[in-house]
Amino acid sequence: MNPADDREPTARFTVINTLRTVFTGLACFLTFQAGQVAPGWILAILLLFAVLWLLITLLWISAELQSGYLSLLPTFFDITLLTVYIYFTGGTLSTALLIYVYVVAVSSMNSRAPQGLFAAAYIVILYSGLTVAMAMDWLEPRNIVGPIRRPDPLEMAQSLTLVTVICFGVYFMIRGLVRSLESKNETLIKQAEDFQEVNRDLAAKNRMIKDELVVARKIQETLIPSKTVEGKGFKLESRYIALHEVGGDYLDFFMKREGHHGILVADAAGHGVPAALVASMTKMAAEQHKDKIHHPRHFLSSLNRAILDRTNLHFVAAIYALYHARRRKLEYCVAGNPPPYLVRPGEPARLLEGQGSVLGVIEEPRLNQYQVRLEPGDRIVFFTDGIDECRNARGEQLSQGQLEALLTGISSLEASENVADRIVSELENFTSGRGFEDDVTLVVLTVEPYK
């Protein structure tokens, strides 16, 4: 038995054994005070046994042993003491007869030994002997707490019958209740064990899923280009922040020797694993149609055909841009994604034009191609709608004006500074620790002199 589990019954048995000693001592004292020497010595002997039992239980006997067959010993002393007290307080007319019921009831609660049955049987045997002895005039009536009256035979028979019926009735009733409670408790314990087993299985599966998601995240991170890519006449910076272990955003860079540099930013609808699978499907489709990256609208149309009817309504919003470094010309096509911002030193940040249908829903989405001429020092900021959905501590969503002000503030940064990290830092300050509510992908194209 666990020592912690044994503490409560040990305290209970200690209180019972202490009270037995105190009450026996009090009864012994009152008996001697009343001049009843013979019962006084009997009670003195029982007091000695009570003290010895208390010391033994405190020093050597555990609560587990006390609830076994050793429980019959204190029950024997308790009933013997009570019967002696009943004799000296009127015998079959004593009001202390009700304590018999209490002793049987408490004893019947012990399920480790037949303490209740022993108590009921011993009470009936001992009390029957007392009743017969008084009926045969072998014992004189005594009453140290009131007037002495000899009960007639009918009163004795009624008293004996009531004690027998009530004691055994209480035993069977309490014993039945205890067994019922034990059965329910065993059922609850079994259910608790089954629940713990299920919980352990779920915890193991949860750990397995988390481990697999960690691996999936690492694999997904390998599919994302480096945070900074530099080429002749340009620099690309990116940040990818997944809301969960894996995200539904996707970005890719396509570099060609002839000076054309493709930038793809995509956002699969939803979160977590389903969105990540759609994003992976989009990447595979992009790899299959690299031959069309020189024409943004044709490239997105090819992606649409590749994922159509395969995403289970998880559409893809995307933007694809082609930058020609020598001519400083940006051509782009928007498919449901927010259009990019132009950040030019000394001017407010400006949202570029761009509209189009999402991919993966209809066979012929509405896609338009746009272009813009750039100058050295210009920055183009591409992003997914996770940035638009940022909220501050009051739950207010980031407005277009606030985003434009944020981007205007970074227009004066030196080309050597990491603009993408600065934008993310400003957004985190805006959320005040609330964090992002969707996957966030950010790409900054910085135009440099072509040398």
Task: Please characterize this protein's 3D structure.
The chain has 451 residues and is α+β, with helices and mostly antiparallel strands. It has 2 domains: 3-181, no CATH class; 224-447, Phosphatase 2c, domain 1. 51% of the residues lie in helices and 15% in strands. It is built from 11 helices and 11 strands. It has helices at residues 3-33, 37-59, 63-66, 72-87, 98-108, 115-135, 153-223, 272-288, 296-307, 400-409, 419-431, and strands at residues 228-231, 234-241, 249-255, 260-268, 316-324, 329-335, 341-343, 350-351, 369-373, 379-383, 440-447. A 6-stranded antiparallel β-sheet has the order 1-2-11-10-7-8, with helices on one face. A 5-stranded antiparallel β-sheet has the order 3-4-5-6-9. Strand 5 (316-324) and strand 6 form a beta hairpin. Helix 2 packs antiparallel against helix 4 and helix 8 (272-288) packs across helix 9 (296-307). The two termini are 83 Å apart. Mean pLDDT is 85; it is low at 1-5.
In short:
This protein is of the alpha+beta class and 451 residues long.
